[in-house]
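DM between two lab members

TW: hey, do you still have the STE24 endopeptidase entry open?
JB: yeah, one sec
JB: this one, 417 aa:
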Amino acid sequence: MHPLLYIIFAIIIFEALWDFFLGELNRKSWSDKVPKRLEDVYPQDKFQKQKEYRIANYRFGLFSSAVSTILILMVLWYQGFGWLHYTVENFIGHKYLQPLVYFGAIGLGSMILSLPFSIYSTFVIEERFGFNRTTKSTFITDLIKSLLLGALIGGLLLWLVVWFYHTAGSLFWLYAWGGLSLFMIFFSKFYTTLILPLFNKLTPLEEGELKSAIESMSRKAGFSLENVYVMDGSKRSTKANAFFSGFGENKRIVLFDTLINDLDKDEIVAVLAHEIGHYRLKHTIRGTILGILQTGITLFLLGWFINHPGISQALGVASPVFHVALLGFGLLYSPISAMAGLGMTILSRRQEYQADAFAAKYANASALQSALKKISATALNNPTPHPWFVFFNYSHPPLLKRLEALDSFTSVKPTIK
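TW: and the structure you got?
JB:
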């Protein structure tokens, strides 16, 4: 066994234990009583249901995490990734096809192993608590579409990186960075026009009082509103959401139909003002830029270490092989990736506060508070998470913190221009 393999073991085990530690802290922080501020949306029986939902998901998460951790450790210990390489090599000699088949096999195997957990989560836990609306046919169709889309996009990007590796020498990471950056920009711009319609139906918001109120708010906020779409989120779940995507002429605001059903007009306008805030405050473009920079750093380190023989040897291959080393690098890079992800998580929480303040200025702070409470209660979200769990895992501030931050705006009238 190569010494690097023991480092990979240590990383995987530490991450699993750390997640368990944070999960236990969070579980023990669950309140037995409804926070006074949420009594209007969380009656005691519903709050108890929320706790049961949290417990069911927590126990299921522990089990699925333990199974996945044990499986990856077993595959590494018995050098299964090395065996897979030699198996692929025996059947396929083309240097560009080998990585595609290798990662395709890993991806397919991972999907097959995770499929029972996905089925249980959707059709047992979510069904038990009244969230699931996904039919078996929709589930199967989504699975097939995701596999084909992942194979197409993932395969093209992997082929691009492999091609640069074999043609650009030591600077392959720089060319790969340029190619992947262009893809990230393209994906950010066209996600709601090219990808999302493959899974959901998007319908322009019909004319009426709600659309007029949204248009009035967007003019006050200095936002050129071109497209507001309603998505059939109820096709899969009762949970509500809204999001902003794209930039330039392709920017879109998407409302789940469940959001329209659960909230009143002022609350919907406030939620959309929050989403517009992300765009007007340049959160969307900054997120894309930071993602590109993070990708550049990752690829630079990959270029530095990819030909180190120890990485391939740790996974059971005697001499350096690009796709095996790429997998090994991903496992070794995990702690750095986690730290970078933590930084993005902290930034995301800060941006959520900023978008809330924007919404309070151009819509109505009280309406946004009411909307946040309803959305959280409908989804049975945990209103009392542990601060450490929040710090490491929450991309959005906890509900009570957001409500407190909005209190300073509740006496301020919306800005009129």
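TW: got it. Strands lie at 202-204, 228-231, 242-245, 252-256. Residues 12 and 72 are 9 Å apart (CA to CA).
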